[in-house]
From TrEMBL:
Subunit: Monomer.
Gene Ontology cellular component list: cytoplasm; nucleus
Residues annotated as binding CMP: N140
UniProt: ATP binding residues: G59, S60, G61, K62, G63, T64, R172, G215
Cofactor remark from the record: Binds 1 Mg(2+) ion per monomer.
GO molecular function ontology, one term from the record: ATP binding
Keyword check for Metal-binding: no
Organism the protein comes from: Gossypium raimondii
Designated name of the protein: UMP-CMP kinase
Family stated for the protein in its record: Belongs to the adenylate kinase family. UMP-CMP kinase subfamily.
InterPro entries cross-referenced by the UniProt entry: Adenylat/UMP-CMP_kin (IPR000850), Adenylat_kinase_CS (IPR033690), P-loop_NTPase (IPR027417), UMP_CMP_kinase (IPR006266)
GO biological process: 'de novo' pyrimidine nucleobase biosynthetic process; pyrimidine nucleotide biosynthetic process
UniProt-annotated location(s): Cytoplasm; Nucleus
Function: Catalyzes the phosphorylation of pyrimidine nucleoside monophosphates at the expense of ATP. Plays an important role in de novo pyrimidine nucleotide biosynthesis. Has preference for UMP and CMP as phosphate acceptors.
Length: 235
């Protein structure tokens, strides 16, 4: 599991691990991992996580392209929206609040979303993660950094004209409570006001890859493919 994997990087000094771990809720398993490694219980040959954030407005094609990236490059796909919808379906304590927030096209408190992502990462045996629809706000971004303690390697931005996004969302036909014109307008406003600053942040950090999200699914994937292919050759 990644949590275990993350704890076993033998090239990292123990004081760095301690500092990092103190910011994480994974302290317990980190220390367990270190102790196990010291005892030689687990082979210390594990990989550093490779994190991709997948950003873009509603209907820009994030989920569609993630499926292709998974097929071609073997990532684990963690859709923030799907995780939140699963919480609603499971009737968890936060379910009603999440449902109302999604209906309003607003953003669920970061702590809730980051915890769900964290759980999935911990359970995964993969070390390559596509985190789809996250971070959607600066608060999301900072919260991920604080709780998970890792920065993304790659940030994809699917850049799509609004009228195309609206058309796609209205045709999506997945029975989602937020795929109606009224909510889409709110989501587009939220995207402009809260998500674009995150995209600009990663642009300034030199981590942003902008994809022109118009054309067929395959044409768009041909813009995505070389980004990951380059990382594969680097190893
Ligand atoms: N390149 C494309 N051209 C036309 N429709 C698309 C394209 N990519 C995705 N779609 C469709 O648009 C809708 C939204 O795509 P989706 O991947 O769910 O976007 P997002 O996750 O960004 O909201 C879906 O019904 C999907 O099948
Ligand atoms: N990081 C996130 C991601 C989604 N969400 C909520 O979930 C809704 C659906 O997200 P999604 O990623 O499935 O939507 P699409 O962009 O794929 O259409 C958003 O409009 C938000 O209300 C959130 O609050 N925080
Ligand atoms: Mg989606």
């Amino acid at each position: 599991m990644w949590r275990r994997v993350a704890s076993l990087s033998s090239s990292v000094s123990s004081s760095f691990l301690a500092q990092t771990a103190s910011r994480l809720n994974t302290w317990e398993s980190l220390t367990t991992g270190i102790a196990q490694q010291a005892k030689g219980v687990i082979a210390p040959k594990e990989k550093t996580p490779f994190i991709t954030f997948v950003l873009g407005g509603p209907g820009s094609g994030k989920g569609t392209q993630c499926i292709k990236i998974v097929e071609t490059f073997g990532f684990a796909h963690l859709s923030a929206g799907d995780l939140l919808r699963r919480e609603i379906a499971s009737k968890s304590a936060d379910g009603a609040m999440i449902l109302n927030t999604i209906k309003e096209g607003k953003i669920v408190p970061s702590q809730v979303t980051v915890k769900l992502i964290q759980k999935e990462m911990e359970l995964s045996y993969n070390h390559k993660f596509l985190i789809d629809g996250f971070p959607r706000t600066e608060e999301n971004r900072v919260s991920f950094e604080r709780i998970i303690g890792v920065e993304p390697n790659v940030v994809l931005f699917f850049d799509c004209p609004e009228e195309e996004m609206v058309k796609r969302v209205l045709n999506r036909n997945e029975g989602r409570v937020d795929d109606n014109l009224e909510t889409i307008k709110k989501r587009l406003t939220v995207f402009q006001a809260l998500s674009l600053p995150v995209i600009n942040y990663y642009s300034e950090k030199g981590k942003l890859y902008t994809i022109k999200a118009i054309g067929t699914e395959d044409e768009i994937f041909e813009q995505v493919r070389p980004i990951f292919a380059a990382f594969e050759t680097v190893g």
